[in-house]
Amino acid sequence: MSRKKRAGLDTDAVVQEAIQLADELGYDKLTLAALAARLGIKTPSLYNHIQGLDDLRQRMAIHGLEGLYSALLHAVKLDAGNPIQAVAEAYVAFADENPGVYAASLLAPDAQVPRWQELGEQIVQLISNLAEPYSLEPDEVIHWVRGFRSMLHGFASLRQAGGFGMPIALDESLQYMVKTYMRGAQPQR
């Protein structure tokens, strides 16, 4: 028995609408019922395009990681003189501008989904490369990447939640935070 698909609706359109809905409502409030209502279809009709909520979230994560990687790579190319600061600013801007898909991209990639795994590895490698001038040991690089990501995620999350109320420019705080973090990575003499 073949199912009838709504004209003009395909998997990409479903994922894009889910991303917009997650941006508006919050990633944690995204449901198939809400998405179907937004698309003007019945919830079971979504299964013509996706395999369920987990599949949708996986597709959103891949989309998010593609966007994040593109933004970070662009930042590195744009500001070769200070790529760490450029990446920090691009990361926070991406999270601000894409809250739903950013939230989707936070999950550790599923090793069973090659594209998801590949994108996660590309982002880790791009950020790891930023640490090269600091002559860190391989394990230290992993710690450095985790710390850098945690710092940026914390800043972006607090910014999105309106958690910064002091009268100092947030961009200045981000610059200060990154500079301070990088001083800790300086080779010890």
TrEMBL record:
Residues 31-50 bind DNA. GO terms for molecular function: DNA-binding transcription factor activity; transcription cis-regulatory region binding. The keyword Protein biosynthesis does not apply. Keywords: DNA-binding, Transcription, Transcription regulation. Gene3D superfamilies: Homeodomain-like, Tetracycline Repressor, domain 2. Residues 8-68 form the HTH tetR-type domain. The keyword S-adenosyl-L-methionine does not apply. It comes from the Bacteria. PANTHER family: HTH-TYPE TRANSCRIPTIONAL REGULATOR RUTR, TRANSCRIPTIONAL REGULATORY PROTEIN. This is Transcriptional regulator, TetR family.
